[in-house]
Structure formats: C-alpha cells, structure tokens
Amino acid sequence: MSNSIGRNVLHQSLLCSTVFEHQSNRHSSGIPANSLFQAVSINQPAGASAARKSPLSTKFYGTSLNARPKMAMGRHRPVLITPRAVLAVDSASELAGKFNLEGNVELQITVGAPTPGSLTQVNIEISYSSNSLLLHWGAIRDKKEKWVLPSRQPDGTKNYKNRALRTPFVSSASKSFVKIEIDDPAIVAVEFLILDEAQNKWFKNNGANFHVKLPIREELIQNVSVPEDLVQTQAYLRWERKGKQIYTPEQEKEEYEAARTELLEEIVRGTSVEDLRAKLTNKNDRQEIKESSSHGTKNAIPDDLVQIQSYIRWERAGKPNYSADQQLREFEEARKELQSELEKGISLDEIWKKITKGEIQTKVSDQLKTKKYFRTERIQRKQRDFMQILNKHVAEPTEKKNISVEPKALTPVELFVGATEEQEGDSILNKKIYKLADKELLVLVHKPGGKTKIHLATDFKEPLILHWALSKKAGEWLAPPPSVLPAGSVLLSGSVETTFTTSSLADLPYQVQSIEIEIEEEGYVGMPFVLQSGGNWIKNKGSDFYVDFSYESKQVQQDFGDGKGTAKALLEKIAGLEIEAQKSFMHRFNIAADLIQEAKEAGELGFAGILVWMRFMATRQLIWNKNYNVKPREISKAQDRLTDLLQNVYISNPEYREIVRMILSTVGRGGEGDVGQRIRDEILVIQRNNNCKGGMMEEWHQKLHNNTSPDDVIICQALIDYIKSDFDISAYWKTLNDNGITKERLLSYDRAIHSEPNFRRDQKDGLLRDLGNYMRTLKAVHSGADLESAITNCLGYRSEGQGFMVGVQINPIPNLPSGFPELLQFVSEHVEDRNVEALLEGLLEARQEIRPLLCKHNDRLKDLLFLDIALESSVRTAIEKGYEELNEAGPEKIMYFVSLILENLALSLDDNEDLIYCLKGWSNALSMSKSKSDNWALFAKSVLDRTRLALAGKADWYQKVLQPSAEYLGTLLSVDKWAVDIFTEEMIRAGSAAALSLLLNRLDPVLRKTASLGSWQVISPVEVFGYVAVVDELLAVQDKSYDRPTILLARRVKGEEEIPDGTVAVLTADMPDVLSHVSVRARNCKVCFATCFDPNILADLQSNEGKMLHLKPTSADIAYSVVEGSELQDSSSANLKEEDGPSSSVTLVKKQFAGRYAITSDEFTGELVGAKSRNIAYLKGKVPSWIGIPTSVALPFGVFEKVLSDNINQAVAEKLQILKQKLGEEDHSALREIRETVLQMKAPNQLVQELKTKMKSSGMPWPGDEGEQRWEQAWMAIKKVWASKWNERAFFSTRRVKLDHEYLCMAVLVQEIINADYAFVIHTTNPSSGDSSEIYAEVVKGLGETLVGAYPGRALSFVCKKNDLKYPRVLGYPSKPIGLFIRRSIIFRSDSNGEDLEGYAGAGLYDSVPMDEAEKVVLDYSSDRLITDGHFQQSILSSIARAGCEIEELFGSAQDIEGVVRDGKIYVVQTRPQM
Q: What would the pLDDT profile of 960-983 be if each residue is shown by its tens digit?
C-alpha cells in the first residue's frame, strides 16, 4: 500500500521494536518497576493457517535496506551498516530476557506462547544454587499498577502479607528453576524479585523489579481490527524509540505487524480506538504524522513530487541539518504547499512543469537516483576541550630495561660467509642468505680482476642439484658458454645442471655443500636458478631465484651486527620459530601469542619486534602457507587468541598502546566458531547458486579449503571488479596486481590457481550478490581494520538467509554512546563522497565518542579498537582523496583540514601532549583569521613550524624504535633488503603523519605570502662566492676543514654547532634562532647564514652541487646565481680570500692563580675573571632600579689549575697529562676521556670554605646547608664548567684560529638562578639589517637555555625603534615546544679568557651548568599571556627593549644582552659587546 509515514522518514526509515510500556513508577511490592522485556507474541508452527504470522519474529534476512514499493515503511536507499542483533527464539517459547547479575550470576526468562485453551508459562532459570532461594512475585492485570496474586500458584508458594507471593526455586546442580502458569487472560504482565532468604540477599534489575509482559491470547484478537494510519504511526514510534536502526525489508514488515499487534492488545485490554489515536497524536509532531497519513489517502499528489518540493524547501533554507522529526515536518509542509496549489485550481501537470525545470530538475533528479532526500550533509560536532584527549604515557627508556641477550651461535653457512669474505677481500657485489625450511642457501657475488665469481653454499645434507642459466637481460634463461661450466656440469637446452659438492674450505669444522662459478665474458647481467633435491623443485617463494651481477650497493644485504637497539633475544627466538610459523597463519598467530609475555618483559622494543615480524608477514615478505592444510576456523581461533592478548596489553600497559594498535592493524579480527568456518562453507554456496563449479572457481575453492589468507579478500574483489567491468579480464588482473598479487603468486599457493575466471552473462547478478555477501565473510576474519567490517562487528548482526553467515551472530557492543549508530551510519553514507570535509568531521566525531570506552576494560574492547583503527585509516584515505578539494581553497580551509588530521593523529598516540598544544594553536589561528587579526598568518606560521617539529620528532621515534628491529630481524629472516631499508618510511606513510606533512607543505607558502615573510630568513647577511656542498647535518662536518670556499646546504642545524673552516655560507631548511650560538658565530665570522622555507629553491640549490654560486643577501631575501668563466676567476681572486677568516693566530695571556679560591663581585678584575663577570659587576648600581641584577661571586682564573695540582688530585693530573699527549697526536677521542677525568677531581677544603664564605656574605644560599649531597651536586657542576674547555666544538674552534689551548683559562661565575617566566636575548643593533636605530630581541618561555642552546623551534622575535620604545613590532611567534623550568638553585657559568676577543667569536663555546637539572615542560602557548594578551605583550616587550637601550647607553656600544622576566620584572644576567 502507499504509505505516507514511510515517505516522511525518508532515507532514515529504520524501525526497531518498541512496545507500549506501563507508565507506573512504583508497584504494590514497594519496589520500583522497570518494564524491560519485549512483549512475547504468538509464534505458531509452520502451516497454521488460522493464526496471523508472529508479529515479533526476530530473524534478520539481510544487511541493507531496499524496501519494496508497497512495504509498510516506504522506500529506502541501501546503506552499508548492518542492523543490531536481536534475540533468536524457538517456536515453542520465546526468550524474554537474559541478565548478568552481580557475582557472575546469570538469569534467563522464557515465556511460552499460549494457544487457544492453553496456559501461559513463564520459566525462570538462575545460575545460583541455594535451598533458601525464593521468587518474590505478583501479576499485573489490565492497566492497574497494584500487584494481584493469581489463584494458580506453583507448589510451595506462600502468601507474603497479602502483597506478594513467594515461591521456592527448585535446585539442580549449579542452577535453580521455577515455572509459573497463568490462566487469567486479564493478566498482562508478571513482576518479580529473587531473594536468598538465608543470606537476606536480593537480586534486582538495577534496583527495580523484573517485569515480563505476557502475550495476549490469539483468540482474543482475531476479531479485532485497528486503523492502518494508527499502525503506521505506532510503527514509526517503535523505530524512533529503538534508536532509528537499519532493518531489512523483511524486518520492516515484521516490525509493522508487531506495531499492529501492540495496538490490538491495547484494544483487547479495553482501550478504545479514539483513546489510542489521542495517545499517539498528543504532540504536534505526532499530529503531523496523523495528518500525513490522512493526506496520503485522500490526495493524489505523487510522492516523487512531494520529495522534489521538499528538496527545494531544504535548499532554500540553506541545506540545514534536519533531525528526523524536522524531516517529517518539512516533508508534510511540502505536501501542504502542493495541496494548496491544487486547491487554487492548478493542475498536477502545471505543478510538475513549474518546479522541475532547469538546475532544480538536475539536482533533484540526482537526489531521486539515490533516494537521499534530506540527507544529513554534515554532523554537528560537539564542543570539546582538547585536554580531555591528552595522553602522557611514555615507555620506559630502553637503556633502563635489563634485556638479557645471549650470544647466538653462527650457522655453518654464516661461518662459510665469513671465511669466503676474508678470502675474497672487499670486492663483494652482492650477498644474500635465503631461508629454505630449516636450511640456508648463500649466494655471494664478487668481481676480482674484472671477472664475475659466484659462490653458492648450503647446509643441505641431501644431494642437491643447481639448475641454472645466465641472463643478458633480467629474467631470461640463456645457456652459459661451455668455458664457464664447473666440473661435472650437464648442459641442457637453455640451461645447465651442476651438482653441489662438499666445500673446498675443508679445514672448517662443519659440513657445507657449495658451487663456484667464474664468468670472464662481459654482457651477462644475472643468473636465474632453481634447486632440485630428491626429485622436488625448490624455488624462492614460488618464483625462480635470481642473482644480480650489477654493482648496486643497495642490493648487498647488510649484516646488522649485534642487534643493538633491539630486543635481540626475542628477535632471534622469532627467527628460530619462523620455519614453524611458515606452515600457516594458525601457526604464526599462535606463536605470536606465545611470545606476547616475553615481548612485554622486553618492553617497547619487545613489541617493536612483534610489530616488525607481523608487518613483514602482512607485506608478504614471509611465507604464508607451506605444505599445511588448516581449517579457516582454526586460523580465526588463533587470531582471536592473539588479539585477545593484545587487547589485554592495551589496557594494562597504556605506554605500549600505540605499538599494539599498529600490530592489530596487521592482524585480522579473528573469532572462534562459525565465523571462520563460513569461509569454507560459503564458497560452496556461491558455486551451487551460480552453477560455477569448475575452472578458476574450483581452484580457488581448493585453495580456500587448504589455507585461507588475506589474499582471498583481494581475489574476491578482483572477481567483483571483473564482473562489474562487463567481464573485462584486464580489470581482474589490475585489481590483483595493484594489491601485490601476481600470476606467479597465484601459482605459488599450495593449491595453485592456474585459471582465469570465465563466467556467463546470465550469472552476473547472482555472482555479484553472492560474492558481495562472501566478501563480508572474508573481511570478518582477515580485515579487522576494514571500516565496514569494523562497524558491523560493533553494531552487531545476525544473518539466517541465503546461505551466507548462516547461524552467525555478533551481538552489538553494550553501552555505546547515545546516537553512535546514527553517527556510524553517517560515516558509511559519506565514505565515498568526493568532498570529504563532512566525512572527516564524522570520522573524528566517531573516534572522540568511543575514546572513553578504549581506556577501560571491556570484553569487546578489541572490536572497538579495530573500529577506531579503521576510522583512523579512513581519515588518511579521505584526506588523500580530498587534496583536489583543497586546490582552490583558502588558508582557513586548509588550516581546518590540518587541525582535523592533527586531531586524528593525536587520538592515536601514547604521548600526544605536544600535538594537543599544536591543535589548540590551530584553533587559535583559525579564530584569529576569522576575526581578521593583523598577525593571524604570522601566528599560524609559528603553529605550522611547531607541528612540523612534532612530526619530525615522531619520525625520529619510528627510526629509533622500529628500524633497528627491522634491520636485525630482516637479516635473520633474509627479507628483501629494499623492504628493510624503507620499513620506517612505509610505516610513517601508512599513518596520518605523512598526509599532515603534505598539507603543511601546501599551507606554508600561503602563510608566508600572507604574512609577507618571503622565502628566506636571513640570519647573517654576507655576500659570498663559494662551491656548493650538500650535507645531512652541520654537526657531522663541524670539525672538517674545506680546502676551497664552500657553501654548505645542511638539512639540519641544531644551533650550537661550530662552522667548519673554509665555509663561507650555511643555508638550511632548519629553523635555528637568530640569536643561537651558531647564528652569533656566523655573524662574527662573516659567514652568510640563512634559513630557506621554499623546498623548490632548496632543490634548485642542491642541483648546483659542486658548482660555484654567488650569494647576494638582503635582510629578507637571497639572490643567487651560478658563477662561470671569467667571473669565476675574478671571484676567486677578489672575494674569496676576504672571507676566509683571520690569517694569524689570536693571542692569549695565561692567567695565574691569585691566591684566592673565591671572590665577590666587587673584586672582579681583568686579571681574575673574564668579561662576562666584569660586565655584570659593572651594571650593579648603575642601571635603573626596575632592572634587576643577580648577585654574583666567582671562582677566578687559575683555580682549576690549583685544584688539579693539589696532592689529593695527583692521580687525576697524571692521567690528564697522558690524555693531552694522546690529543696532541690527533686522537680526538681523548677529548671525551679528558672531560670524564676532570670530573674525578676532589675539592680542597680551603676552596669549599672560601666559596661558602663569599656566597653567604653576598646573601646567596650555600648548597652545603641543605646537606653534603647538595654540595656534591654543586661541585660536580663546577667541574663540568671546567671540563667544557675540552668539548669538541670549543677545541676545534680554538685550533682553527691558532689559539693556544693551554693558555685558555676558565673562571666560573656563580649566580643564583632566577626562576624565570621568560628569558630573552637582546641585540641593540638589528643583526639582520645592521640598523643601529632598531633593537632586535628574542623571547622564550622559561630558562634561556632553550634560546641559546640546541633546542628546536623558534623564539618569539620582535624589533623596536629606539626612538619609540612603547611600540615593539612582533616579527614571529614562538614555535619551541619545550620550556625549561627549575627550582630555586645556583648556576655556574663559564667565563673564559677566550671569549669576546677581537676577531674571534668565542661566546657560547663553553658550558654553563645549573646545580639542579631543569624540568622540561611541553609548552601550551594558548594560555600564555605573552601570546594571548596584547596589553601584557606590549608591556613586557617594551620593557625588554628599554632595558637594552639603558645598557647600551651605559657601555657606549652595541650590546648582546641576556636576561629573564619574573613576575613582570626585568633581570639582566649578562652582557657583552655585540659582535
């Protein structure tokens, strides 16, 4: 029948059982009631003609909606989500409820459906045995709330205070039973509690009564009827109350009939039709439903026309997100509008022409094709505090784990390798060891004297034959010339057979068979071969072996040594078990499960090893199945065991969650029982239904019976694509090849697939239907992280029709968030959308919704994990698909997409604090952009830079934790070297980080252009000529000396390196601070130093490697050109020498011990301390009072030498002398040894007493007052300052300028640390432009070490005109992720006589060491007033600039000043002349 209700609910008409419930809050028992049980209805046996079909039949017949036109619930479009499961019941009695009570007690209630003349039976069973167990119960009659006491009572029943009955349970084994029979047709429900009288223990239903509704007798409703419009309304209400779930057409029909039965029951109980109608339509929305129904019967307006009018209304309203009720109202409003037109005398044809023309017609016709009327185009995301998803779970550092590693004995083949390599020298081209079951095969290629020599060796005991040839192009088999054949070889047609012989290295204590082949002729590029033993062919994973003769270092399989940085013992155990694991997935997953505890004991590296092993498996680097027949259910059970254990680790060890997620993504969901067995059974259903029992389908059938694998998912998809392409066989092969399945792989299965598919056209529809169903079965086992399968497993399903998943039931996960099924439905509807913004929002909202469930124990946790992994992966897929959408997008949209992907990444990490603060930064940047803030792009650029740093840190983690395990295990398992080399890279690409990085690269130039930043940040603007050299990091070449002027392109610059001798420019993509040590040294040495933000410019510069370039910088850009011809000669003679640095040595005067171990600031002189101490003492009393100067004392020059010469340090002095001689012999490893030796010095008592006296007299705290340990901490800090004289960068820097290192003396400036809110560095002349009228400064949060040391990220930078100090101008916002904060403490600063010398930049070469270690804090700039409060920012920056001007004026020259801000007050801790 035509059904307007069905039209109203549009595409979301998904009904679910809901019954009229008693509205009573309290019954006569005195205990609140709760109607939980569905009405149990009549369900007669097949063949009963008189009875109506059971209205509450609960069997599912499909998984998607596509209702027939005349179905009661209207038309619906297919969707991807499968319905929640409902309880299956037999025909005799129906399961009314099943409950888990406290103490693992189970309660089950079944109700016998009454037939004419029979009794209604209620059976109650509880898994609890006690002789004192009673059923405390009563009955509900008609609409009355008070309990009635039925006259028919079980034996032993007693009346309890005339308010209830108490019936004893009958015990049997561990269970107890009671049966109630009801003969009164007026009784509509039974309510009860259970009491253990001996223990006075009550079993309740969440504090309320258990309530069982009884079915109405069939004979009472046979002659009763109810209007169809009320049935429609009740059906809608059932669906709405049940959460608007998705039902199959058959289920919709059953639900409609169930609604009818409910109304019939109400009428039988005395409710009139008028009362029912009033009850159903007592609200406005219900009245509209009733009206819509009447409209549907009295009007002839076609529903398609109403749908079009509804679409037009929706479009005019701005395409809002309508709720289901709003959709109903809109649909009926559209109908009313059309009805009004008809009443004006306008014909239907005229209305059609009026509203279905032009663009509207096209749009609506597209809507009509998919039936997506009022489709929700976008979800409304909840407002969340990002801090709610903060994780700070950090694995214990590897070095703290006590991982026992036993030396592994070398195999015979490995010993043979060592002997052969020693014999043949360093001419090795190619080396690989193949694993052949429990044996090994070595292939070694080298080229001595232009010849090609191939060694093959194996520890096979049985006779072995090499069947081989040569190739002039890869893959071909050519018969070798007779001159190269080893003795005893037999020449065949196109190949040769040579028998292995006992190795000529007979003196070795093992048995190895080997062959040596020597080829003198040029032109051969490789050697294909296979082996034969006992009549059996031995191949390389189903293909020929192939030896490559070409010289490519990447092809030589490396030996990754002793497994450093891995859980070595575990990896070797895995390698030893690989032979067993190769038998089948069942074996592999069971072995992995057995190793989980050992991995847990090894910590992060243990799980890294499991991940690497599983990843090698998933990428087909390991054999999946070898001569072993295993049932799919056994594979599924093994998967289930492994994933259960991983689920437990996820809960118990949150620090390993990230790795556990990655392991799960390589393993299918699994599951015991029929889920796995269906793979075997259902291929037979496909063959039987479609009459395709031979050829490829039979071969696949045999393969599936022998050993199913994830390849079967791809094969199934390839068949579907082949059929959909109108049987184009190339579509079949494309799908296979795109997913790594070649013809050779199909042939390599134990049950090989030789044939191609060949179907008839009349089989098309049936095959597409059945293969689609079968795909769900395959994914249920093999594709745990497949989105559709993951959704299905969480929402539940059961199928009992058409031969697929017969009898398989997965119940929905309990306690899912409200509205979560609809959210997943939205995701499924939009998963193929080209415009992905709404999809991304839906995916992330779903992840946020289930996140709380992932943090606590749940029996179905792994299903939630697989769903979360699938949602995470879908975000990455969607963003890759959405790149095109961003081609013309503005910066706001790109920033929004960045924030979505960043949120996706943060939801998956164990330690995401940095990403959370990046996420908050992007939120602020978007707000600033929308409010048209002047600096929004500048701020967004800082957040972008910080996000890049976070991604780089994540990549470093992958490299540190995963790559060593990949290399070591890859070597042990003979995994292809290319797969090992790119392991980390591929892991990163598989996640959201790679997609995020691409978006940042797209956004960066947009922000730079908007903020007028250009492509360069010029730190030291010096015009130079030089030859381009590309290096990975500046640190690696800092002690190198270039013999010609060199422009270094360095990928990484940390900030504290020394610039190599001969370098005239350093260009980098990294972001060192303008005032970092390396930046200062570059300016002092007149070296051009700049950061380039444009990857295209950097690529162009790199392409000029080896050529001479002319760099001509301005303050904001660098122009460059290639120098050629005469210009090259001119530049060499005129410009290069000018930039080479000082040609003569810098002289130092050696300082002597002045008789005092410690002095106060009023005693600072040039003979006793360096410029750092003298300058800070000079400021004391001269700067305005609003500038604070910390109290200082010092250990003067000569104290170190005096302490070293003390008798208590004689052994240290002697050792240092030996190490200095070693250093003089150019053994630079002595530098580290010298530093370690200096730390062994002991403090003379006189030094301790003098320092204590001076510090206390100056008002400074004495560390020793807090205990001896605190003094020892202070003494160690002093020694570290002295030892820094021998750090590498200081040593090479002094040697470069020919400074006599022995004459370098180190005083130690002692200051109390000011626990800073902010630290700053000021240059009173702008270092980039040289403008002396402008101050340049940088500010960081916390201590200044993050500004001047090797801490990544940029500081806040600003300039301020000296004649207008009230108005500083911000140049860049901070991107440093880390701030340093410290308790009240003392800092010991280096103060040498080798700093601030004319012509030499020695500042920053030596260490300043705090007595206490500073705490590293991840910074949240979103709550930092310096960023968020404009007035506060202006006040602080202006005060810093004013301090700079005051100090410059005192000294009369440009100054380089360091200081801090505490509670708004400025403190200056040191100053020096600006170089």
A: 999 999 999 998 888 888 888 888
Alpha helices in 223-299 (DSSP H): 228-241, 249-268, 273-280, 284-298
The candidate with the shortest Cα–Cα distance to 1034, out of 1057, 1018, 1016, is 1057
- Answer yes or no: are the C-beta atoms of 524 and 533 closer than 8 Å: no
Q: Long-range contacts for 273-281 (Cβ within 8 Å, ≥24 apart)?
A: 273/226, 273/227, 273/230, 276/226, 276/230, 277/227, 277/230, 280/230, 280/233, 280/234, 280/237, 281/233
- 181 CB burial (10 A radius; 0-12, 13-18, 19+): middle
Query: Within a 10 A sphere around the Cβ of 967, how many other Cβ atoms?
Result: 24
| 485 token code pair | 């054949």
Assess contact for 662 and 646: CB atoms under 8 A.
no
CA distance 129 to 713: 49
| Alpha-carbon gap, residue 1136 to 1062, rounded angstroms | 10
The DSSP H or E segment spanning 96 is strand 93-101
Q: What is the pLDDT of residues 529-552, one digit of tens each?
A: 999 988 888 888 677 888 888 754
Alpha-carbon torsion (1206, 1212, 1215, 1216), positive or negative: negative
Q: What is the CA radius of gyration of the chain?
A: 41
Q: How many CA atoms lie within 13 A of 103 on its CB side?
A: 9
Three-class SS string for 1210-1268? HHHHHHHHHHHHHHHCCCCCHHHHHHHHHCCCCCCHHHHHHHHHHHHHCCCCCHHHHCH
Closest to 793 in 3D by CA, of 80, 84, 243, 65: 84
CA distance 602 to 1235: 34
Query: Bigger pLDDT: 494 or 356?
Result: 494
Cβ-contact 1460, 1319 below 8 angstroms: yes
Three-state SS at 902: helix
Q: Which two tokens stand for residue 1436?
A: 């602080």
Please answer whether residues 616 and 973 qualify as being in contact, where contact means their C-beta atoms are separated by less than 8 angstroms.
Answer: yes
Is 1077 a known active-site residue? yes
d(CA 700, CA 746): 10
What DSSP state is assigned to residue 620? T
Give the full edge-to-edge strand order of the sheet including 1409-1410.
Answer: 1159-1160, 1192-1195, 1306-1312, 1386-1392, 1409-1410
Q: Tokens representing 601?
A: 């004991």
The position carrying tokens 């299965």 is: 749
Instruction: Provide the b/e sequence for 548-578 (b: ≥16 CB within 10 Å).
Output: bbeeeeebbbeebeebebbbbbbbbbbbebb
Give the span between the Cα atoms of 1091 and 1070, in whole angstroms. Answer: 6
This model's pTM is above 0.90: no
Two tokens at 1156?
Answer: 């005092």
User: CA 1216, 1218, 1219: angle at the middle one, nearest 5?
Assistant: 65
Handedness of CA 666, 669, 673, 678 (dihedral sign): negative
Measured CA to CA, the distance from residue 616 to residue 658 in angstroms comes to 18
CA neighbours closer than 13 Å in the CB half-sphere of residue 1330: 9
What is the token pair recorded at 125?
A: 């069973």
3-state secondary structure 640-700: HHHHHHHHHHHHHCHHHHHHHHHHHHCCCCCCCCHHHHHHHHHHHHHHHHHCCCCHHHHHH
- Whether 923 and 899 have beta carbons less than 8 Å apart is answered as yes
* pLDDT confidence of residue 657: 93
CA-based nearest residue to 443, from 521, 529, 505: 529
What one-character DSSP code corresponds to residue 852?
A: H
Quick: pLDDT tens for 275-310. Answer: 777 777 664 344 444 344 434 333 467 777 777 888
Closest of 894, 966, 891 to residue 929, by C-alpha? 891
CB 572 within 8 A of CB 595: no
pLDDT in tens, 978-996: 888 888 888 887 888 888 8
Catalytic residue among 27, 136, 295, 1077: 1077
Counting Cβ atoms within 10 Å, is residue 761 exposed (0-12), middle (13-18) or buried (19+)?
A: exposed
Going by C-beta distance under 8 Å and a sequence separation of 6 or more, which residues neighbour residue 178?
123, 124, 135, 154, 167, 168, 169, 170
